[in-house]
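Quarterly update from the structural biology core.
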Amino acid sequence: IPGLAVQDNLFLGSESDLGLIKGEKEKNKARKILDTLGANFKLSQNCSELSIAQQQLVEIAKSLLIDINVLVMDEPTASLTGHDVKHLFKVIKKLVSEGLSVIYVSHKLEEIEELADRVFIMRDGKHISTKDKNDFTRNQMIEAMVGRKLESEFPNSVSEPGETLLKVEHLSYKKIISDISFLVKRGEIVGIAGLVGAGRTELVR
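Predicted structure, tokenized:
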């Protein structure tokens, strides 16, 4: 909850009968867990002031406070920068080394290759295959995911774009979009990429 401090988020749902957060012993435990996760913010800091990656650490710390055995992470890197992803992976590997089981949901094969011990593939809501990671080649994983034989992960193709259909010059909108210019030609597929909050949706709208 962005409007609450870190410690309030950590102990949300486990307050005393009077609605008070835990005592110094529990706060010290929370601080120790945050330190283990490499969190460099204070318990008293408001969560709205934290980055997406830091807020994620608060959620992980909240789970660890109740001594869980299994942590489920669903597309946890979707909104993170490269640096934050590396830190998250470091945290995950540390937790696993300490005996925690992590179910990591992702369609990014490089993440699976770095983190997974065992790979469970689903397609259209159905279980397709489960193997130790070392028993899967990259192409086999992709074929199981898409349901067809893979000739090449990135096949070579020749394209000759046609005339310009859309021309955007110096598009700006409030403080969200600033001086954006691009062309779209016939036959092209144009993708707009960026982290959450970068202005992709506002640009298209």
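DSSP finds seven helices and six strands in the chain.
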